[in-house]
Amino acid sequence: MDNLRRIDLNLLVTLEALLTERNVTRAARRLHLSQPSVSVQLRKLRHIFADPLLSPAPGGMFPTTRGQSLLQPLRTALADMGRVLEPRPRFDPSTAGTTWQIAAADYAEYAILLPLLAHVREAAPGVRIAVREAAHSRMIRQLEGGAIDLGLLALEAAPEHLHSRVLFKEHYVLVARKRHPALKRKLTLDTLCQLEYVIVSPEGGGFRGITDTILESRGRKRRVVLSVPHFLFVPEVVARTDLVAMLPARLLQDRADNNIQIIAPPVSIPSYEMAMIWHERSHLDPAHTWLREQVCRTVTS
Predict the structure, then answer these.
(1) Contacts of 181 (CB under 8 A, 6+ apart)
(2) pLDDT in tens, 45-63
(3) d(CA 246, CA 232)
(4) Which of 112, 174, 288, 301 would be 263's cystine partner, CB 3.0–4.6 Å?
(5) What is the largest CA-CA distance in the chain?
(6) Is the pLDDT reported for residue 265 higher than 60?
C-alpha cells in the first residue's frame, strides 16, 4: 500500500501501453496523449522501477527483462481495477438467486411479509427469504453485524445511524369475542377499564403498553392479566375467553373469524409508523434496492 501511495496509477496504464505497443508514438495515440507527455511518463516509470523498462530497437523499443516480467501482472491488475470501477450490475429478479435475511415480529410477518411473499415468488422465483424473529435491540445488532439485510419495526425504535423508510401508519383497535357479556352496549371508558386484557410483550413478560400510559394520564387504569410474546396468539385467546386486547388494525384485516369483533376504543390511542430499516452497506446494492421497492409497493397497493 505504501508503494501505491507513492505512484500515480495512471503511469501503470501508460506502462502497459508502452510494453504492448513497444513504440512511444503508437502508445501515445492509443492513450490519446501527446508523444512528449508519454516520454515524460516513461522517464518517471524508469525512475520508479529503477530499470530502463524499454530499450531502443529498430522500429521502436524492446522490453527489458524487468519490463517483460511486468506486462502480464499489469494487464491482470488493470483488468481487475476495471471491474472494480464498472457500474453496479443491474439486478434481474427473474434470474436472481439471492437469499435475504429479514427480521420481523409476527405482526410484521402477517401485515407486511405475507402480502410481499406472493409478489416476490412470482417476480423472483429463484430467491430465498429467511425470516428471523427478533426483538428490536437484537434486530439492530444483527443489522449492524451483517446477520440480517432488512428489519421491520416501529419507526420510533429505529436508530438514527441506520437507514429507514416509513411504510404505513398503524392504529389500535379493541378486539373481543363476539357476544362478550360486557360489550352488549356501546363501549364506554368505564367499561374499557373494567375489562381484562391480554397484552403483547415482544421482549417478554411486560404488562404495560401505550394504552396504560394514556389511561393513567386520565387518572384511570386497566387490568392486564396475560402477557404473551407473539401477536398472532392473541386473536385465538380473545376468541376463546373473555379477555380483550388492543391490537394493530392490520393484524386483523382479511381475517376470516366469526368469533371476533373489532371495536373503536372510546379513548384516543396514539398511532405509530411502521418502518423498514437497513444498514449503509446495503443502501446502494441493486438487489437490496429492488427488495425495498417491493416492500413499499406491497404495503401501499
Answers:
(1) 242
(2) 999 889 999 998 887 889 9
(3) 13
(4) 174
(5) 107
(6) yes
What is the residue type of 214?
I
Number of domain units in the chain: 3
CATH number at residue 25: 1.10.10.10
3-class SS of residue 240: helix
Domain assignment of residue 89, yes or no: no
Q: Which amino acid is at 239?
A: A
- Domain span including residue 127: 99-168+273-300
Cα 209 to Cα 223: distance, rounded to the nearest angstrom: 12
Of the candidates 171, 147, 172, 168, which has an alpha carbon nearest to the alpha carbon of residue 295? 168
- CA nearest neighbour of 113 among 288, 276, 278, 283: 276
Among the three residues 84, 111, 145, which one is the final residue of a domain in this structure? 84
Rounded CA-CA distance 202/205 in Å is: 8
Q: Give dist(CA 12, CA 5) in Å, integer.
A: 13
Those residues with Cβ within 8 angstroms of residue 203's Cβ, 6 or more apart along the chain or in another chain = 135, 136, 137, 229
pLDDT in tens, 203-226: 778 899 999 999 999 999 999 999
Grid cell for residue 153: 419495526
